Amino acid sequence: MxxxxxxxxxxxxxxxxxxxxxxxxxxxxxxxxxxxxxxxxANETKGLIVFGEHRYFGVSYPFPPEEAFTPENNVYxxxxxxxMDFVDLVGFIRSEYKM
Length: 99
Hints:
Structural class: alpha+beta
Largest sheet: 3 strands, mixed
Oligomer: single chain
């Protein structure tokens, strides 16, 4: 799972995690087009920005892209599984950043 972290405005003492859950596309395109979150909200809250790429999109394929969308592999493309990816990512970030 690809993810981006932006700590430009982050205050480790008081800043929250501002999490953006990716959707049907490349995570960089969402990051590049969310200036309100990455500039305004992050600056005002002193937050740590985390963008998580949705499984099966961007480069976050659990299988080679040419095999990912077959019926037998689509069983791993559920809302519940995608949400658990994001839960695991936030847990990892909290551990890495000692939060």
